[in-house]
Write a structure and sequence with these properties.
Layout: H1 2-7, E1 17-19, H2 27-32, E2 37-39, H3 52-60, E3 70-73, H4 82-88, E4 93-98, H5 106-113, E5 117-120, H6 123-128, H7 133-138, E6 139-141, H8 148-152, H9 160-163, E7 171-176, H10 185-192, E8 198-203, H11 209-221, E9 228-232, H12 237-242, E10 246-249, H13 262-269, E11 274-277, H14 282-285, E12 293-295, H15 300-311, H16 314-331, H17 334-349
Parallel strand pairs: 1-2, 3-4, 4-5, 5-6, 7-8, 7-10, 8-9, 10-11, 11-12
Length: about 350
């Protein structure tokens, strides 16, 4: 979001950022950009319905002096009181970005009906959630974008092979994903057990401690303690990607799925050969066998076969990496994302 805000045309847009509570690690970034940072509640419980109207007006009051023309909701919630508050505050248009594949609650339908426009991060969302005539008219495909030069110019400055004493004749496979069940790490670890002379680097926070413990147990039970490294959060992702031979995103096709997987987007931008599971979001980014490989989710043998095939063929990895980077440059840069948002805002405001 901040990458978009920083690059908006200031002759047309004067952005502000609103958070429920200040104190986040990005507060100073917003303030350093010279962008107003507001701390105001922008949603409420819908029930009881009897006093919803008065609660909405009360929450809208602090926003009215700011005279916001457009209100863009950029979180994961299915809350539908936010557009009511935005309208009561005087906003002419309310937009939200659909960032995951959740849709089972009626509140998503209400949220969409109340929206002026919806930014869908992958094409499956449009086909599955917004295919009806009312929803389709207001929905636009707005995928994520990356700052391409950050990845094109990256160098392997982390020296992970040296620091971790990974043998020089071993391939390095990398994955950037939070340690959560939906991310599919068990499938990747099980596949690695079938691939000799390969080291797996797992970069990502342990947000689910029990799941992280299960992953470490799986590694030990498979005898992979010397071939799998849990790196936790990696701050310098471009350098991490510059040090690996192959990137894998093994997300499962259950629970909350990807909207537009940023880790895969960044790996492709770095020119790294990639394998991803064939799920929404990933299948927009990867053209199978042209700019990467897609495999069915939760299929250990098929993932292992794909890993072995590409690790055995360095020239094919290089070709896939070049094609992946070219695809990102053509369709998924931050410049593309900003232009798409500016067009979306202009449509919503009737410009």
């Amino acid at each position: 979001m901040l990458n978009i805000i920083e690059r908006l045309d200031r002759e047309k847009f004067a952005p502000s950022v609103c958070v429920l509570a200040k104190g986040g690690k990005l507060d100073h970034v917003v303030e350093d950009m010279g962008i107003p940072l507001l701390e105001l509640p922008f949603e409420t419980k819908a029930k009881p319905y009897g006093n919803l109207h008065s609660r909405v007006r009360q929450l809208a009051a602090p926003f009215r002096p700011h005279k916001f023309s457009l209100w863009h909701s950029f979180h994961y919630s299915d809350d539908y009181t936010e557009p009511l508050i935005a309208r009561a505050a005087g906003a002419k248009a309310w937009i939200y970005t659909k960032k995951n594949m959740n849709w089972h609650r009626r509140s998503w339908q209400l949220r969409t009906l109340l929206a002026t426009r919806v930014a869908a991060q992958n094409s499956d969302m449009i086909n599955e959630f917004f295919a009806g005539p009312i929803h389709r008219r207001k929905t636009r495909f707005v995928p994520r974008g990356v700052v391409l030069e950050q990845f094109r110019s990256a160098t392997p400055s982390l020296r992970l092979r040296e620091r971790l004493a990974i043998p020089t004749d071993y391939h390095i496979v990398g994955c950037v994903a939070q340690l959560l069940p939906v991310k599919g790490h068990p499938t990747l670890i099980a596949a690695l057990a079938r691939i000799p002379k390969t080291h797996l680097l797992l970069a990502g926070k342990s947000l689910d401690k029990n799941h992280a413990a299960e992953l470490r147990k799986q590694v030990t039970e498979l005898g992979l303690d010397d071939r799998v490294t849990f790196l936790d959060f990696v701050d310098d992702v471009p350098s991490f990607l510059a040090e690996i031979d192959l990137f894998v995103l093994p997300t499962w096709a259950r629970w909350r799925q990807e909207g537009c997987p940023v880790a895969l987007l960044e790996a492709m931008a770095s020119g790294c050969a990639c394998i991803a599971t064939d799920i929404p979001g990933a299948r927009d980014l990867v053209v199978h066998t042209e700019s990467g490989w897609l495999v069915p989710p939760e299929q250990i043998e098929l993932l292992a076969a794909a890993l072995q095939h590409l690790l055995d063929r360095p020239e094919q990895r290089q070709r896939l990496g070049r094609a992946a980077q070219a695809r990102i440059a053509a369709h998924y840069t931050i410049e593309h994302e900003v232009a798409a948002h500016e067009k979306l805002y202009a449509e919503a405001l009737g410009w």
